[in-house]
Amino acid sequence: MGEIDVRAALAHWTANVADAELSAELADLANAEDAKVSDAFFQELEFGTAGLRGVIGAGTNRMNIYTVARATQGLADYLNEHFEHPRVAIARDSRHKGELFVRTAARVLAANGVESLVYPRVEPTPALSFAVRDLGCSAGINMTASHNPAAYNGYKVYGADGCQITSEAARAISERIARLGYFDADGAHASLVDFDEACERGLISWIGDDTIERFVEAVLAQSQERGDAASQPLSLLYTPLCGTGLECVSAVLERIGVERVDVVSSQGEPDGDFPTCAYPNPEERAALAEGIAQCRRAADAGAPYDLLLATDPDADRVGVACASGDDYALITGNEMGILLIDYLARMREQRGEDLSRGIVVTTIVSSAMADDLARAYGFELRRTLTGFKYIGEQIGLLEKRGEADRFMFGFEESYGYLAGTHVRDKDAVVASMLICQMARFYRARGMNLAQAMEALYERFGYCYNRTVSLSYPGADGAAKMARIMEALRTGAHERIGDLEVRGVVDYDKAAAMPVIGGADEAPQMLPRANVVEFDLEGGCKLIVRPSGTEPKIKAYVFAKEATSEAAMRLLDALEAAARELLA
Length: 583
Prior knowledge:
Helices cover 39% and strands 21% of the residues. The protein has 583 residues and is α/β, with parallel strands linked by helices. Strands 1-5-4-2-3-6 form a six-stranded mixed sheet, sandwiched between helices. Strands 16-24-23-22-18-17 form a six-stranded antiparallel sheet. A hairpin with a 6-residue loop joins strand 9 and strand 10. The radius of gyration is 24 Å and the shape is globular. The relative contact order is 0.09.
């Protein structure tokens, strides 16, 4: 695709596009510099296990009605080959063009005899995963770009199990997409029918509020509170970051009796511009700046909040800040995962449950402290590849064995958590409920969540983690990323920074799933993945993988020391060494 004639592609699109807004953009591109034209046309958006994701606009490398229709035609072809009467649940978040892309996808599915069940308003990603299984669908489509900036949108596909599609399904759909053009002039291309006509024929229908109610009830079924904690007052400031979380999160928190829930007024309503934060990612302090400012004003007025809770635009991830001295401390994704594991294990112990039956699933790049918790409580810990679909897959395997009740919790370091088996993806709604209940548990013991995490560090050691993300933009970025990964695999790396390399795991070759505890069974083998892990002395690690959705390589550094200061110094040194390796 690097050799494509981008000016010819621009001319082809200009001659065939019927949409007025895209036509105007193409006219502007005709007078633009070559680099801008190339960025729009030098490749086609890659359809992978995360579906499509890209900047909204005109061109093959953009999210628009033609790229969405083409992808949906490929999906429809796949579904019609594998299901007798396929039906698809469709949702969207608050991003620009989301409703248009939903209608486009439904029109293509209808033209191919595939029924669509559509959420009539923005809803969280976990509500889409829930609907796929609840409504007996063959697949799901979610128009979302998660936490990317406002210029982006995306197209995420789910399988009949409610998980994001497998790599095998993604390849099969991608092969069918590759056979298609974008316009009538291209021969094979997407077929569409009128939306209203398809509704009249019963090929498109709306998902009712009863589905959302069942989702909320499934979340509430994961409630953990017993005894004194439930009576503790809690004061919460919540921000959905102009996304989808308000409806479901508010409903759940009201029903568990959170005493005070206020919403960051500038971020409460869905708004695809995300006007108060350029990067609506709850991992970033800048995204929480409006909320932190409101927390400070409330504290100055004598009515402080116990927690600031933030869900990302599609409400599958959640971030938290709580008062720490004169400031507000952000709890990292790894820290919240560890806190929730510990809390859930405590609650199960209090109920007299056999923790040796319990299974927690996390990823190879998540906190090493999870291993310590597994040994301390006696549950089984499994580590999958990065991507919550692999955690969902483990739930499915347990379900097939009649052991779904063994699943305790799943988490990944990028702020994604799941308790319960009602969905097979990250769920910020259930996580928000559990975080508030955990906060009340610790409040009854005179602690906040930051203090609770400090107690775990003092018990198990300071396991610090950091993700380093380096960008490789442009047409040559992918080639440079490939060269770097090859050098990591083939180089003789004896030391990284000042630490000895004790072992290297290339996940592109056969690798067994890391497991702590559990029965003596044959190990599960992980799927091949473009990931390299360096195991370093002292329990430290460096793990490197290219992003699946962006032109980036991510390096995960892990440091463990007896004190916070020593762990931070070691983490800084490992980051510097990682940046040098990836330069």
